[in-house]
Amino acid sequence: MCGIVGCVAKENCYERIYAALSRLEYRGYDSAGIAMLQEGAGFHLRKKRGYVSNLKGRPLAGEAGIGHTRWATHGKPTDANAHPHGCGKFMLVHNGIIENYLSLKEELCAQGEQFASETDSEVIVKLISRAYTGDFFSAVRTACRRLRGSYAIAVLCSDHPGEVIGARQGSPLVAGASDTALYICSDIPALCGDADYICPASDGEFICIRDGKIQFFDEAGSELCKCFTRVLPESRAETSVSGTFMEKEIAQIPRAIADTLQGVSSLDYAPCARALRAAKCVYAVACGTAFHAALVFGDVVQNTVGAHVVCTVSSEFRYANLPIGVGDLVVAVSQSGETADTLEAVRLAAKRGAFVIAVTNIAHSTLAALADFSIVMRAGPEIAVAATKSYNCQLVCLYYLAAQMQYFRTQAYPVWFLSLRDLPAAAEAAFDCFPQMSALAAKWKDARGMLFLGRSLDLRTAAEGALKTKEIAYVFAEGYAAGELKHGTLALIEEGFPVVALSTRRDIASKTENALAESKARGAQVVLLSQSEESLNESCADFRIRLPNLPECLMPAVAVIPLQYFACRLCLLRGYDPDKPRNLAKSVTVE
After folding, report:
1. Contact assessment for residue 338 and residue 290, using Cβ atoms and an 8 Å cutoff
2. pTM flag (> 0.90)
3. Identified catalytic residue from 47, 468, 580, 586
4. Which domain does 282 fall in, by range?
5. Residue 542 and residue 522: Cα distance in Å, rounded?
6. In the annotation, is 47 catalytic?
């Protein structure tokens, strides 16, 4: 889960790479580095532990360069382990994991090689150096044949100034072009500050920047004919922002929902009509926040359409021995479209003949390319590592997909369908909860743990609220079924323990209230969020927060917003950066 970039530009090459790394930093920020190649002067290298901003300083000279921002897998975050890594006439940056690096390292050590880092990546550059006999491209191809695992690499060779070669296997890599620079990069949004046209590479392909042009080649070394796509203006990430990106992205939720609604409502669903109408079994696969969206989808389809949905975290999907095959439907959800576990789940499903529908934020992602049908949300670039607006937009896409499934089966949309248009206004109305959530964050900033309770769809929202609290505020939190509290977890409740409950389903509100009473009787401080005035008035909760009113199945899209804001405020009050939580990165491209 790292970010890499390569650039060839006659002017400001270092500055361009630095800017791209700044946009890539959500992929990792343990360390960063840039290597520049100057004709006649060789390599100039700058790499440091910590943020990309540590690379500020007088630009290094050169018309070709590579850069890297790291999320550590092999080796601690140190200057020595930071990329780029060099050997002889080569410099390399790498995103991914080389699974056979230990055996390769032992082989190279036996041949007299000495290693300066603890990384698996240094193995690659040494293999390239040993394979080199004057043909830059051939050396990279030869080395890649030895690798097992996932990689996207960018390589410089001092014998070939003005050239950068990239290779992809299992990790994303895209080429980009503008009038003044040519790029390879691990992420489309990172190029959108400069590149006007982009073209993703597929697994097993190579990208060569040389002689002022970009060429693609297959594993055999044959040139490929590829089409470049113009970068849409809304794909461009804004990097100058007051406050944190997470605060900004929460504020963008109403607009992002409105844009996504416009996109999904104009999409032609005919290509997936048969799968939606006649699927023998429906599976939903995703990771992290996207999995919570998948769980909401499963509940809504079951309650609305009457079809059963098997929701499985992507990392378990391949090993669950599920009876998936021809006639089944798989819905895969990933903000980046590059989540490694989800991609592997989709590859397995496709191999067995299932129809795959992707929900992603990136139209040219690997997931979109693998799927039979893609629903691209319009959340816009999301820089903060913790997902906020992308979650709300995933729900919008999945609601619309559930409605289409109902329509293709019954020729009628569900009763809540027209209320989708009310989501942007309801999302904005949810901002009225922020003062109360901010006060709670101040009250609980020293808490050691929290419980988020709910039933049915509220349980999914509770799980997402707990995840946000864990990943950015570093407070242990659990999203828990309210009815299960008395079967063990109630033992955790002590005087002052924070409990947040959601109750948006009126017919079981009294059941949720029982859990609150049990908690309060044992000293908990209890918060209730609901759109029901009756539920709020009759609750024993210490704090009662009114949510906007929508059909119950749509409530997860807005009920989560106060919890997103609460986690952000709690994080800031505890002195942390919500945009860059420790040990995490945005796009998880390793298994």
Report:
1. no
2. no
3. 586
4. 241-414
5. 13
6. no
